[in-house]
Amino acid sequence: MNNEQEGPFNIGEAAALSGVSAKMLRHYEALGLLPRVARTYSGYRQYGPSEVHTLRFIRRARDLGFGIPEIKLLLDLWQNRRRASVNVKRIALEHVADLDRRIAEMQAMKRTLAALAHSCHGDDRAECPILDDLAAAELPASRRVAAKRFR
User: Fold this and answer.
1) Which CATH number does 11-71 carry?
2) Between 13 and which of 9, 48, 107, 123 could a Cys-Cys bridge form, CB atoms 3.0 to 4.6 Å apart?
3) Per residue, what are the HEC states of 37-77?
């Protein structure tokens, strides 16, 4: 593999150096998270240290659960040396609030499933409160309208 300071790197080398798969690397390029890179005469992508660094940034943001729209904003802020950190903090705190909401939803799901599993005898009987609950579930009004379209 090329020395990281030198480049250029082929897609496999860039993927290995950044921790992003070659498939995701192409995807991020298609989404515009990564600028189009130089290509050889035979069409192979060539990445430099700057692109590898950007890919590491994207991978870390994904590891923290940021979505593509937020990553685009964070990349723009990261690349703008005249940025105000208040904008970065706002994005991070909005993401924390979203994570808190999702954690609360998952904890509620866990409690419900644990209660249903506790009420199930788990034996040879056909009766099952878990299946009864799933069958009796009412769709929210917004989903009932969408569900009718697919009947």
Assistant:
1) 1.10.1660.10
2) 9
3) CEECCCCCEEECHHHHHHHHHHHHHHHCCCCHHHHHHHHHH
